[in-house]
Amino acid sequence: MKISLHHLALCAATLGASSAAFAQPAAPASAPVCEAHVQGQPGKKFDLTELRVSKRCAQFTVHLLHTGKKPWQEAGHNWVLTRSQDTEAVIREGQRSGPERAWLSRGDARVLAATQMLSGGEHASVSFPVERLSKGEDYTYFCSFPTHAEPMRGKLVVID
Known about the structure:
By secondary structure, this protein is an alpha+beta fold. The protein has helices at residues 5-21, 72-75, 87-95, and strands at residues 35-41, 45-46, 50-54, 59-66, 80-83, 113-114, 123-129, 139-142, 153-159. It has one domain: Cupredoxins -  blue copper proteins (Immunoglobulin-like, Sandwich), CATH 2.60.40.420. A hairpin with a 3-residue loop joins strand 1 and strand 2. The longest helix has 17 residues, at 5-21. 27% of the residues are buried. It is found in: Periplasm.
């Protein structure tokens, strides 16, 4: 059997076209992680000292677990987010608000997100729109319980 160059070219083209039909599409960009699990631990500390939030997230959710055993009145933990430039004033003014308000001033617009104050073993979540955050801005999260705000801090960094 005699095969012409034309016939070989036709077979190669057909084979190439059929293999292209089975080619895998390019993998989509990985989806951003739009939540974080944070532990408020005994010893006045968070287990995570930095959270990275993608601007590709519509909402970001923080899930807080208080891993201690004491009631909130003795050693509660919460998670509060502010711009870093506002953190000290929010803490100072919040301390005057007392335990009924979880040591946060009611309606303080500088508080971007906050969970309720938790007793040991409890958990809570807070979600906030990422569009309220600006890339390049410094953000601090902290626990507003008296004497916890200084050691229980972390940075929130906006990425993408």
